[in-house]
Prior knowledge:
Layout lengths: L1 E2 L16 E2 L6 H6 L4 H11 L3 H15 L4 E4 L4 H9 L4 E5 L22 H18 L1 H14 L14 E4 L15 E3 L13 H9 L3 E5 L8 H16 L5 E5 L11 E3 L5 E3 H5 L6 E4 L4 H6 L3 E6 L3 H9 L4 E3 L6 H10 L3 E3 L7 H13 L1 H17 L3 H18 L1 E2 L5 E2 L2 H4 L6 H5 L1 H4 L2 H48 L1
Parallel strand pairs: 1-2, 3-4, 4-5, 5-6, 7-8, 7-12, 8-11, 12-13, 13-14
Antiparallel strand pairs: 9-10, 15-16
Helix pairs in contact: 3-4, 8-13, 11-14
Amino acid sequence: MAPGNFTATSTLYRSIPQIITDRVHQDFDRISFNEYTFKTWANEMKLLNRGYDKYFNNYLQAYKETKPDLFFCNYIANEACFDLALKLKKPVVAYASSTFPSRLDPVIGCHVNMEKGSFYNRFICAIVQPLRLHWMFRDYLNHINARRVEVGVSKSHDFREKANILFLTNSFFGFEVPTAWLPIHQEIGPILPDTFPNLSPDLELFLSTHLKTMYISLGTAVYTTPKNYAILLQSALELINRNILDGVIWSTVKFNESELPSTINLSTGEAIPTSNLLNNLHPHVYIMKFAPQFAILSHENTKVFLSHGGVSSSHESIYTATPMLVLPIAFDQAGNAERLELAGMALKLSKLDIKVDDIISKVVKLLSEESFKTNAKRLQVLAKYNSKRKYRGADLIEIMLNMAKYDGIRNENDELEVNIESLLRCWITPDSRMGFFRGNYLDVYGAAMIIALALISSFGYGFYKVIMLAYRKWVLRSRNSQSFSKTKNE
Length: 490
């Protein structure tokens, strides 16, 4: 069940019933046009969770109607799903399209990799920013916890805390910065469909006759300002005019044509009516509302992908080994842009400071430096092999269902109830149950240091006493010798 209508068209999925709720309304202008920081993120989470009671009751009603054996909950802003599953003592699996939100992310003013960061920056990102993050989310937590009390769910003290829940994430090392995760956190990405829409005859003709094409798509949810769209259009025309590219395909799902300038002026002084571009009257620019993205990226003549850096677009670009120019707008996109740039297959732009010359210079760099294509092919290998892990994700969900049969108990209504902590005991590391000090063996290491210091002190003290004894004997002997010599002389 989800807000909006996502009824599957494939016959493979028509047996899955869907419960449609009302749509989630967000202020995308505020998110898309302004700088996206953890303050924006905190405000966004508050808005999304205003309907906690409504969603909790919707999910509860759905449970009563369908009697599900397992809850599979999207991780972001979906507290009601997890809370209901835990209240009903049902096994629950969490899913996220990426590792966002992370403690190391541009959204909180840090980099995704702090390996080369200064002590000051690492201190800020490890200590200061997490404290600021918790402070910013205090109202959100208080609101959710107040609602939890009303529906009989335990309070949480961490806005990202999800108890001992199997967590599946649509990511993979190579794209993701390597880190140590618990066994209950499983990577199953990149999740890509087995089949994709093919190119239309018009697109096939356009790509086959344009050997150096750039594909532009800024996603289906967020968008940028009309000024930025005009700059992107001008950049596309300049790249064609200067023979850097010979074709541009643009998927404009969120394009507001009425807000664009009537003409696009080139550096040569030529003015091209915007209507000509939007109606595909320009021979080297092809604009459409929806495009078969994977098929376009798979074509050998698509040389650069200008994207917002969403996780699906990033994965498809990696899978097809297409170098990227990334214009992050919100959510996980800034972090994805950094990851792609660190991997050496992309360069990034700033939505607050887009310049035609900057776009042109970066496209030239992506086309002329072989390292971008080489790194894209290296990541392509990882993506192709890891894309098979979606089947492992399905197996993990099956494991949860089957484990619940043997570890659960039947209540008075003959419904299966489980203890999520004991259900996942084979995945939960012992250190997580031992507490911070015991789990990290800090008590053992502390005792070892005390013993070592005691031994060193004892040996040091003993050595000091031996030296002092030897010194005293030497002084006494010296004095006796001097006294004997004096008596003999007399």
